[in-house]
């Protein structure tokens, strides 16, 4: 990927977005750095000539259009879109508050799709581009206490798979980034939670939520940023990239068991045809 190409990154105030913005600016790319509160990213951009800070709430279409217009005016176009903005939610499925889970879907799924659909016409016309969707190992394997969060990431996975096939003829790539626990403040800052009131759920949900090692996660955010840059620079980027040892082991365990279940039910599956 040529360093003259333009990156557009959402959700840069903290966490993955901030690390990636810092790394791409330092590497010499032209970078559009966005966040709902522009004051939270002004220090990232400073007076760097290759960076532009913009206010952006991905749930507001008028802000999306305004930000894209400013990006094109400054740098001439967008080559890499990183859909990073997202939030979490802790709570059993039965106890979760619909208003909160819908808010999460508006950001994690619909915000991502509105950004993607706004950028695609330009990428199609230039016959190139790369869309990086920040998913999660939770988009491949679910856990108790985060069922709705899992659902939002499964939705991102599903639409990304279909989109990748649709835009490949236009030389546009789509890559899903699937991290496990990384040392950011996501779980404390960007995740709402419902306190369990149903006694039967408390042990299961609490064990998982309390097992999230806030601030002690094994993943290194700087290495994640470097890995994403390498994906974009690759001549044959993967459609999926697991990041973190936990992500690797969880995925292998899930799909090993799933494949065995598929094989165990093979005769029933095939026998359902006319």
Automatic annotation (TrEMBL):
Keyword set, alphabetical order: Oxidoreductase
Gene3D superfamilies per UniProt: NAD(P)-binding Rossmann-like Domain (3.40.50.720)
Keyword field contains Oxidoreductase: yes
Pfam families: adh_short
One example GO MF annotation: oxidoreductase activity
Family label: Belongs to the short-chain dehydrogenases/reductases (SDR) family.
PANTHER family recorded: SHORT CHAIN DEHYDROGENASE, SHORT-CHAIN DEHYDROGENASE_REDUCTASE FAMILY PROTEIN
Name of the protein in question: Short-chain dehydrogenase/reductase
Organism: Paenibacillus kribbensis
């Amino acid at each position: 990927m040529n360093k003259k190409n333009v990156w557009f990154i959402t959700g840069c105030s903290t966490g993955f977005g901030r690390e990636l913005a810092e790394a791409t600016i330092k590497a010499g790319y032209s970078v559009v750095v966005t966040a709902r509160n522009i004051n939270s990213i002004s220090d990232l951009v400073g007076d760097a000539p290759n960076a532009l800070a913009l206010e952006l709430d991905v749930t507001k279409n008028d802000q999306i259009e305004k930000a894209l217009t400013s990006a094109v005016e400054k740098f001439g176009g967008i080559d890499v879109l990183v859909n990073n903005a997202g939030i979490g939610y802790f709570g059993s499925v039965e106890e979760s508050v619909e208003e909160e889970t819908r808010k999460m879907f508006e950001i994690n799924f619909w915000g991502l799709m509105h950004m993607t659909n706004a950028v695609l016409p330009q990428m199609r016309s230039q016959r190139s581009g790369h869309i990086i969707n920040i998913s999660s190992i939770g988009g491949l394997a679910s856990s108790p206490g985060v069922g709705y969060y899992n659902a939002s990431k499964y939705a991102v996975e599903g639409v990304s798979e279909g989109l990748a096939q649709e835009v490949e003829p236009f030389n546009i790539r789509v890559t899903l980034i699937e991290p496990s626990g990384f040392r950011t403040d996501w779980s404390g800052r960007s995740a709402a939670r419902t306190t369990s009131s149903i006694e039967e759920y408390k042990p299961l949900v609490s064990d998982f939520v309390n097992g999230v090692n806030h601030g002690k996660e094994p993943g290194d955010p700087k290495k994640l940023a470097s890995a994403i840059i390498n994906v974009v620079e690759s001549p044959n980027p993967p459609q999926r990239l697991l990041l973190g040892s936990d992500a690797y082991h969880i995925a292998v365990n899930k799909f090993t068991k799933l494949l065995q279940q598929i094989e165990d039910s093979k005769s029933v599956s095939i026998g359902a045809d006319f």
